[in-house]
Specification:
The complex is a heterotrimer of chains A (483), B (118) and C (649).
Chain A lengths: L1 H27 L4 H25 L5 E2 L4 E2 L2 H28 L3 H20 L3 H19 L6 H32 L4 H10 L4 H18 L7 H8 L2 H26 L4 H24 L4 H22 L1 H29 L15 H4 L1 H15 L5 H15 L3 H27 L14 H19 L1 H13 L5
Antiparallel strand pairs in A: 1-2
Helix pairs in contact in A: 1-2, 1-4, 2-3, 2-4, 3-4, 3-10, 3-13, 3-18, 3-19, 4-5, 4-10, 5-6, 5-10, 6-8, 6-9, 8-10, 8-11, 9-10, 9-12, 10-12, 10-13, 11-12, 11-17, 12-13, 12-16, 12-17, 13-15, 13-16, 13-18, 13-19, 15-17, 15-18, 16-17, 16-18
Chain B lengths: L4 H24 L6 H4 L19 H25 L1 H28 L7
Helix pairs in contact in B: 3-4
Chain C lengths: L6 H15 L6 H27 L6 E11 L2 E9 L1 H24 L5 H23 L3 H19 L6 H32 L4 H10 L5 H18 L8 H4 L5 H10 L4 H8 L1 H4 L3 H22 L5 H21 L3 H28 L17 H15 L5 H18 L6 H30 L7 H6 L5 H16 L17 H6 L14 H26 L6 H9 L1 H8 L4 H50 L4 H20 L1
Antiparallel strand pairs in C: 1-2
Helix pairs in contact in C: 1-2, 1-4, 2-3, 2-4, 3-4, 3-10, 3-15, 3-20, 4-5, 5-6, 5-10, 6-8, 8-11, 8-13, 10-15, 13-14, 13-18, 14-15, 14-17, 14-18, 15-16, 15-17, 15-20, 16-18, 16-20, 17-18, 17-22, 18-22, 23-24
The chains are: A mainly alpha (483), B mainly alpha (118), C mainly alpha (649).
């Protein structure tokens, strides 16, 4: 019992602190942005410390709560990543919330609740636990997407996200119940044993297919990506940044754990399904991004494409594949948060009124921030010496070594296509002069700028010195028991 | 498989109960209708409009959702109360935590004015 | 202390980062404290390390800092290596580097605060790169330093980037160096392919274990490495950037383009001597390029009037000597000349800087003269360094140059690798270059310091000795020029008693290639006297031509008698013009063709076509994205059904 509670302590702590932030926000009204933001960051940091202590105090191979919960290296890596993501998003939101005059309390609490859900997803080794975490995360993000209630687009995003998310949850649950019906268990280790011992019947296969659909919906893979552009465009930009990295990484954590772990015996069946989805996702995401004029929409399609790249690592499987996905999630997180940070700086002219043309001539007016954006665009496009290059390199290397050359060919071709739209922004910033009487300028948002700086440095450091980060990811994925 | 037989029975009863009720009502009642009798029942007030035309205040839903939350709480409290002695201190603390979380939500809803009918 | 080896490159890097992080907004005082302070701390750290290392009998110390790249079976560590060779380089790079940092305080004091901070930031960055280059335990780490010093060189040559010729000189240096770097890179790839490692110790072990296995690869790797060395150390045919590099501030010329960076090529060849000694062809190529460069640059030096240009061509020529030594198997001898040269050439450049400073920026020796009276400290230190460069005993250059000439002669007489005749010719070239060196250096001394002043009266009135921050470095370096030669006194001079500490120290990592029949003691003494005599002859000729009442008359007559020859020499044999015709312009044409012909029509055409189709596809996808949530739901449902159907069927 004691060990169980220690393993769960980070989640318990964050949930409690989230409630505290919620109540504090209630007491202080909307005036106390700084205080509440600082409180949220401190809470996330304290949770990080607790995570570290809890990891030290428990056995990475042990199971808790009757075998439903683990705190292995894989889970620790993802939890640390989620906490980092949440902290960056909180910092990113500070100036933005203040400028748009929305209450910080509920917002911060919801981000923290979503983080609790994500952390639970990373630790669950029982499909029911994973599902509970997933719902906690999803419900929080539905509300966050619609948080800017004075904006019609934000409403639209929340409504669409909720309806489609509920539907995908339904599909997922149906898959779960079919699997449970066929095997009589929700525990991943038992599931693997049962599936390995007997030839699975049609209900198990349909269950796996529906489970895959539910997961693909969460990572926004084709053809379950349809919600993404509308939701990403309409949601408050820091929340878009959050959704594009946090819940996506969490979805990958459960995807890896369930498919590479529990459903490994059925790999022959699902691997082609996921492989084809990966290829379609890369093609669709990149091609559709080409014609977008709205930068948030473009980044939404770009995040679809990146889910496709990460799926390549999942298909590759094995320690190398898992390792590369972990590393890629880290790389993608710092890059994408930085890129959205820049979008936030530019969103000065009305809500979400940021077209590619607004970027014209920004390099001259804001050289430092524009340089950061240049780094993020290069990193998303996978150009050295940025982190994105290293991330793609390891993903593709894992896939080639596992024999999925055709998938890597698609991935590399699509990376080339993606350069077109990433560099379009760079081109606008550096080579075009803003036409019109009133060129767009960036708002003064010190915390957002600091986050951009931090992400920019991280992108360069990971790109130039990938070894320690890779070693971390490798140590984490090294014990790919996942069960 | 035998473990599921009670569930099956439950489903059968759930379907059968309204059916049987309707059938008995149909057999027993006297079939004399007039326009007043065919009106929807609205606590005795005269009808002002068709149900399709009328928009309900969003507060109905808010109250309904809050009701469901506390309804579920009661559903959870019942089996706990039955097993209270067996669950002992652990169960007591667990339930305190659960109620504590609900209280936080309740305080929040109250303070934000969700219970006020403007 | 040896565990703190990483501090040596880290300290100047910290200095550079601090100056850059201060956004170059520090005042001069802060900048000096950080910039010169970090150089001083580096010197202190190196001193402490070397004191400890002195007791270790030349063992090799390797320190792994971090694992840098690991991809598949490629593993490259950021590892540092301290052995006698890198210890020697460390000692003078940090000492000369620190002295020049101090000198720069005075020399750059007229600059604005920002330029001053920028200068010291670059200078610190250079120290970091140079020390990384020296300490690198494998070719890749060395290459980082190599590129780093190249970058700093580019930044510092173009320091006055608002002047067009400075910016152009910077670009020229960078581009020419890239040609060499390309060879170096190819060598690294080749070495990795052949040896499976780029670690110096690993490669040496592999070669020692089974030389026959790598026989075919040794010569190409050695030659490609040498291509890199040619670029960095300004040898024929890639020397053209170095004279132009004098556009940078004088301390930069002294530190980077005389004492340290340009000797990196020699260092690299000696560092890889375990490869070179297995390839007679590569050895001969190294020696030949060095010998020919030595005489070629010396002749150009005869007709230069810019005091820094004279020194620049002298540097090219002396670097030629160093390669000549390495090519003749005298690896320690080559490094010894690197070592002594660092002192006297840095001293000469700083002296030239002091002269230029005194003459309010004048660099043309035709408008100088008689300065010895007004700036005596500069004069005497310049004199000591000049005598050292000319090889007059007992100054430092004598010992090192004599060692080189003696070894080359021995290689010729002892028929090294069967190329005896070639080495004898190279020896003759080296001897002739020694004569020319003495001549052009004393020409510079007479034109600058003796006779009557030939500038304007205002300039003469303004001439003054430099401040202490500039003269003290001169004194230190002059003392070095006079004394450091005693570290490597040749065996012949002491009649066979081995007092050559330098060579025995380096013996472990860079043993000299011995020939079978060493020349007799008497022969060696003849050679020594011959080289001194040749130097003295050069000095006397310069005295006759450029001093006294008849000054300038004789060279004037000669120039008139053979105008074509004089023009050719004064215009540096038209090499720059030839390169322009043969390389730069055709490349420009090719570039224009690639742009207008290939790029716009062929590549852009194809790209535009494919982009056109991709865009159409994008539009189609856009059509599917209706924004209607019911359509989306249908989409998701169809996807789920398709997935289920797939797994079932």
């Amino acid at each position: 019992m004691r060990a169980d509670l220690i393993a769960l302590l980070p989640e318990l702590m964050l949930a409690t602190l989230a409630m505290a932030v919620l109540l504090a926000g209630l007491a202080s009204g909307k005036a106390r942005h700084g205080l509440l933001g600082a409180g949220a960051v401190l809470a996330l940091a304290a949770t990080g410390v607790t995570l570290w202590l809890a990891a030290g105090a428990t056995d990475p191979g042990a199971h808790f709560f009757s075998g439903m919960f683990v705190l292995d290296h894989f889970a620790i890596f993802f939890k640390a990543l989620f906490l980092l993501t949440a902290a960056l998003v909180v910092l990113l939101s500070h100036d933005y919330l203040k400028r748009n005059d929305y209450r910080p309390g509920e917002y911060l609490a919801l981000v923290m609740f979503a983080t609790v859900g994500m952390m639970t997803m990373a630790s669950g080794v029982n499909l029911a636990v994973i599902y509970v975490g997933l719902e906690l995360m999803a419900l929080s993000t539905y509300i966050l997407a619609g948080y800017f209630r004075r904006e019609v687009k934000s409403h639209e995003a929340a409504a669409k996200y909720f309806v489609l998310g509920a539907m995908s949850s339904g599909i997922l649950l149906y898959g779960l119940s079919l699997i449970y019906g066929a095997t009589g268990t929700l525990d991943l280790a038992t599931l693997a044993r049962v599936l390995a011992s007997a030839k699975p019947g049609p209900s198990a296969l349909v269950g796996v297919a529906l489970l895959a659909c539910g997961f693909l919906f969460k990572v926004a893979a084709v053809p379950f990506h349809v919600w993404t552009p509308d939701v990403y465009e309409g949601a408050p930009t820091p929340i878009t940044a959050f959704m594009s990295v946090g819940p996506k990484a969490a979805a990958f954590a459960m995807f890896l754990r369930v498919f590479i772990g529990g459903l490994a015996p059925l790999a022959a069946s699902w691997i082609w399904l996921v492989g084809v989805a990966a290829a379609l996702t890369m093609i669709w995401g990149n091609v559709a991004a080409l014609t977008q004029d709205n930068v948030k929409r473009m980044l939404a399609y770009s995040s679809i494409a990146h889910a496709g790249y990460a799926l390549v690592g999942l298909v590759a499987g094995g320690p190398a594949g898992v390792n590369s996905v972990l590393f890629y999630m880290l790389v993608y997180t710092v890059t994408n948060i930085g890129a959205f940070g820049f979008v936030i700086l530019l969103e000065s002219r009305g809500y979400a009124g940021e077209t590619v043309a607004d970027y014209a001539g920004l390099a001259r007016r804001h050289p430092a921030a524009a340089f950061g954006m240049l780094l993020f665009m290069l990193s998303l496009g996978g150009i050295p010496p940025t982190a994105g290059f290293m991330g793609k390199l390891y993903l593709f290397a894992a896939a080639v070594n596992a024999g999925y050359v055709w998938l890597v060919v698609v991935a590399v071709l699509m990376s080339a296509v993606s350069l077109y739209y990433y560099l379009r922004i760079v081109l606008q910033m550096y080579l075009r002069e803003g036409d019109g009487a009133e060129p767009a300028t960036l708002v003064a948002a010190p915390w957002t700028e600091r986050v951009i700086w931090a992400c920019g440095v991280a992108v360069l450091v990971i790109g130039l010195l990938p070894a320690p980060f890779l070693a971390a990811a490798r140590a984490m994925a090294g014990a790919v028991g996942l069960l | 498989m035998n473990a599921y037989i009670p569930v099956l029975l439950f489903i059968v009863i759930a379907i059968a109960f309204p059916l049987i009720t309707f059938v008995f009502a149909w057999i027993l009642r006297a079939g004399r209708y007039d326009p007043i009798k065919l009106e929807p029942y609205e606590c005795g007030n005269p009808i002002t409009s068709e149900a399709h035309d009328y928009r309900f205040s969003v507060r109905y839903y808010l109250i309904a959702v809050l009701f469901v939350v506390f309804d579920v709480e009661t559903v959870f409290l019942f089996p706990w109360a039955v097993m209270f002695r067996k669950l002992a201190l652990f169960g007591f603390v667990e339930m305190l935590v659960f109620i504590g979380i609900l209280v936080v939500g309740y305080v929040y809803a109250w303070r934000r004015g969700a219970l006020q009918w403007v | 202390m040896l565990d703190l080896l990483w501090l040596v490159p880290a300290l100047p890097l910290a200095g550079a980062l601090a100056l850059l992080a201060g956004a170059l907004r520090f005042g001069k005082r802060t900048t000096t404290a950080i910039g010169v302070g970090s150089a001083g701390l580096t010197l202190a750290a190196v001193a402490a390390i070397l004191v400890q290392y002195a007791g270790m009998h030349g063992e090799t110390v390797a320190r792994h800092v971090f694992n840098w790249i690991s991809a598949g079976d490629v593993t490259v560590d950021f590892a540092l290596r301290l052995d006698p060779l890198s210890a020697v380089m460390l000692s003078f790079v940090t000492l000369v580097g620190f002295v020049i940092h101090v000198y720069s305080i005075g020399y750059m004091h007229t600059e604005g605060d920002r330029a001053y901070a920028r200068f010291f930031a670059y200078l610190n960055l250079f120290m970091f790169a140079m020390l990384t280059l020296v300490l690198g335990a494998n070719l890749v780490v060395m290459f980082i330093g190599w590129e780093g010093v190249g970058l700093c060189s580019y930044l510092l040559i173009g320091f006055y980037f608002d002047k067009e010729y400075c910016a152009a000189a910077g670009i020229k240096a960078f581009v020419v160096n890239r040609i060499g770097d390309f060879g170096f890179l190819l060598a690294i790839f080749w070495a990795f392919k052949v040896f499976g490692t780029v670690d110096f110790a690993g490669m040496a072990t592999a070669l020692a274990a089974d030389p026959g296995r790598y026989a075919a690869a040794v010569t190409p790797i050695a030659l490609l490495l040498f291509v890199g060395a040619i670029g960095k150390s300004a040898q024929l045919p890639l020397y053209v950037w170095l004279p132009d590099a004098m556009a940078g501030p004088t301390p930069v010329s002294a530190l980077i383009h005389a004492a340290t960076m340009v000797t990196a090529g020699v260092y690299m060849v000696v560092r890889c001597n375990f490869i070179y000694r297995l390839s007679p062809t590569a050895m001969l190529v190294v020696a030949a390029v060095g010998g020919v460069t030595a005489i070629f640059a010396a002749t150009i030096g005869l007709a230069q009037n810019d005091i820094k240009k004279v020194l620049a061509y002298s540097t090219v020529s002396q670097l030629g000597y160093m390669f000549l030594a390495a090519g003749a198997g005298a690896f320690a001898g080559g490094i010894f000349h690197v070592f002594t040269h660092a002192f006297f050439k840095a001293c000469l450049f700083l002296g030239a800087g002091s002269v230029i400073h005194a003459c309010s920026g004048e660099q043309d020796m035709r408008r100088m003269g008689g300065l010895a009276k007004k700036i005596p400290v500069t004069y005497w230190t310049f004199m000591v360094a000049t005598l050292a460069l000319c090889g007059i005993p007992p100054f430092a250059g004598f010992f090192s140059k004599d060692e080189i000439l003696g070894r080359v002669f021995a290689a010729g007489a002892g028929n090294l690798n069967g190329f005896g005749a070639s080495y004898l010719v190279l020896w003759a070239l080296g001897l002739a270059a020694a004569f020319l060196t003495a001549f052009y250096m004393f020409r510079a001394v007479y034109m600058t310091f003796h006779g009557e002043f030939r500038g304007t009266p205002e300039q003469w009135h303004h001439v003054h000795e430099s401040p202490g921050t500039m003269t003290w470095p001169l004194k230190i370096l002059a003392a070095g020029s006079a004394l450091v030669g005693l570290l490597g006194v040749g065996t012949a001079i002491t009649f066979g008693t081995d007092l050559n500490w330098f060579e025995s120290f380096l013996h472990r990592v860079a043993p000299t290639v011995e020939v079978e029949h060493a020349p007799a003691l008497a022969t060696e003494w003849v050679l020594i006297l011959l080289s001194v005599a040749v130097a003295l002859a050069g000095i006397l000729l310069a005295r006759r031509f450029y001093s006294g009442a008849e000054a300038f008359a004789a060279p004037q007559r000669m120039a008139e008698r053979a105008p074509a020859v004089y023009a050719a020499v004064a215009n540096k044999y038209y090499v720059d013009e030839a390169y322009d015709r043969a390389v730069v312009r055709p490349l420009g044409k090719l570039a224009r063709f690639s742009w207008k012909g290939i790029d716009t029509i062929a590549i852009d055409g194809t790209l535009n076509a494919s982009a056109f189709f991709t865009e159409i596809a994008g539009d189609l996808l856009r059509f599917l994205q209706t924004g209607n949530v019911r359509n989306y739901a249908l989409f998701v449902l169809c996807g789920a059904l398709a997935a289920a159907a797939w797994l079932l069927l």
